[in-house]
Write a structure and sequence with these properties.
about 400 residues, mainly alpha, two-stranded antiparallel ribbon, about 55% helix
Length: about 400
């Protein structure tokens, strides 16, 4: 009889370079979607967010005592109690925080990015190398701040407490700035990835895998094509949304791309179509490498579970999510919730980047006190790991973590 959500688990640890790996053996892929999984048009409502915790385990991560962390020795109800206790601690912090802390800081970062746009386009007018490169760098960072940080916060309705305004910001950042479809972005990221993190066939990050590419092409060359692939994928996904939403998305995508092109011609002074398009590609792919890397580093290679055999959420997230160190550039352009506070973000996805950073000490201390994994690793360490084990992690189907302790 399959385990219910929250049944205790125990990971079969493997050693990689003398460290504990969260990569077990494969059982199979392509598990059917769970009953109640929402459709992109929103006809089925299954909440993937909420005040529920979830940490992660990656290569090189051990418990504070130095031994591999084992979960599943506690009853499922105790896991729910742990989640409730942590949620209460976090809610106290949120309630005592000002609007500036909850939303203002991140809105200000996005606003500053908008204000930098004129300077970036004007710098591109220069025939000298340094001002021109400064313009490319400025527009590249602004683009990723709006499309990654802005879209991510908007998809979780973390920019405002109003659902109506949240929908407006989602359309603006995801469709106009990012050239993607808001319905599909929210469905795939919030409903699936967050609802079923590291569950095979659902939230296992398999959409980031391109097994026909070798490791060096995937890690260092393919990211340059992200600005081209993104709108093409969006066009394909429009088949899954209502025609009104599809028409709106097409208009927003066209408007966003054309405005960028028009500004390059009339403000930056580009003389030809191809030079403007090349500059668009350059600025929109400036941080594409860390964007791809971050998306795979923090989940792939960690424990994976079958849809009908997964632990309670707090254990699931403590095994399947990983934090990277703070980085000024990536913190600004991607946001804390995607870099150094990814564990906190998966536990409390509706919180803004600044609030994730604020609750980080509470979450890390709580998980460590309860002997749950709180996984952190460096960017270079994860990059080295993926280059060494690319075939296992990115080509072959992910292994399913062994579950024990059936109640």
């Amino acid at each position: 009889m399959p385990l219910e959500d929250g049944d205790p688990v125990k990971q079969r640890g493997q050693r990689v370079n003398g460290k504990v790996s969260g990569t077990p053996r494969l059982g199979g892929t392509g598990d059917p979607p769970l009953q109640g999984t929402p459709a992109p048009d929103g006809r089925t409502e299954t909440m993937a967010e909420g005040w529920e915790p979830r940490p992660a385990l990656g290569d090189g991560d051990v418990t504070p005592g130095g031994a591999p962390q084992q979960v599943g020795q506690e009853p499922g109800r105790h896991g729910e109690a742990l989640m409730a206790e942590l949620s209460e601690l976090v809610q106290k912090v949120v309630k005592s925080s000002s609007w500036w802390e909850r939303h203002g800081v991140d809105i200000s970062i996005l606003a500053c990015s908008f204000l930098l746009l004129p300077a970036g386009f004007l710098c591109l007018r220069s025939a000298q190398a340094i001002p021109f490169l400064a313009g490319v760098l400025t527009l590249g960072v602004v683009h990723h701040t709006l499309t990654v940080k802005g879209s991510h916060l908007a998809s979780h309705n973390a920019l405002t407490e109003s659902r109506s305004w949240g929908k407006v910001w989602a359309i603006f950042f995801i469709e106009l700035c990012s050239a993607f479809t808001a319905e599909q972005a929210t469905y795939n990221h919030v409903k699936i990835h967050h609802g079923y993190t590291n569950v095979i066939g659902l939230g296992d990050s398999s959409t980031w895998k391109l097994p026909f590419l070798n490791r060096y092409v995937y890690m260092f060359i393919a990211p340059l094509a992200v600005p081209i692939i993104t709108p093409l994928v969006a066009l394909d996904l429009l088949r899954n949304v209502e025609w009104i939403a599809a028409l709106r998305t097409l208009c927003c995508m066209f408007l966003g791309l054309y405005c960028h092109y028009w500004l390059l011609l009339h403000v930056s002074g580009f003389q030809s179509l191809w030079s403007a398009l090349l500059c668009m590609l350059l600025t929109r792919s400036l941080l594409a490498h860390p964007y791809i890397h971050v998306n795979i580093f923090q989940h792939i290679g960690l424990p994976m579970f079958a849809a009908d055999r997964k632990p309670k959420r707090i254990h699931l997230m403590s095994l399947g999510v990983l934090n990277l160190p703070r980085n000024t550039l990536l913190d600004w352009s991607f946001g804390h919730s995607l870099i150094s506070c990814h564990v906190e973000h998966h536990l409390f996805p509706s919180l803004s980047d600044n609030m994730c950073l604020k609750i980080k000490p509470i979450v890390s201390q709580y998980l460590k006190q309860k002997k749950l994994p709180y996984n952190e690793d460096t960017y270079t360490s994860r990059l080295r790991l993926f280059l060494q084990r690319y075939e296992e992690l990115m080509v072959h189907a992910p292994p399913i973590t062994e579950l024990v302790g059936i109640q």
